Amino acid sequence: MTGSNQVPQREVGYSDRRCRNCGSFITPDFTRVFGNNDDQVFGCFSCLSATAVKNGEARTERSARRSSKTSEQIPR
User: So what's the pLDDT on residue 29?
Assistant: First the structure.
């Protein structure tokens, strides 16, 4: 089989390992599961409630900023 059918792997950079809302460290698995199609995360468990993250609010910049201002954080 000739030709290149392989999809190039994305390089994982610093920004892929940080929440774009609060700057907290996030794992590549968290990014893959809760991030958008560009591997960007706009909210994490540090700045959004678990319910908000699980409902997909970590994927969009607008909802992450809104939720972080209105959600009450529970100390761990």
Answer: 93
The whole-angstrom separation of Cα 9 and Cα 32 is: 13
**CA 12, CA 28: separation in Å to the nearest integer?**
8
Residue 31 · residue 41 · CB < 8 Å: yes
What is the number of structural domains in the chain?
1
Which of 58, 56, 76, 52 lies closest to 22 in space, CA to CA? 58
The pLDDT of residue 2 is 56
Domain for residue 9, yes or no? no
For residue 61, tell me if it sits in a domain: yes
Which residue ranges of the chain lie beneath pLDDT 70? 1-16, 62-76
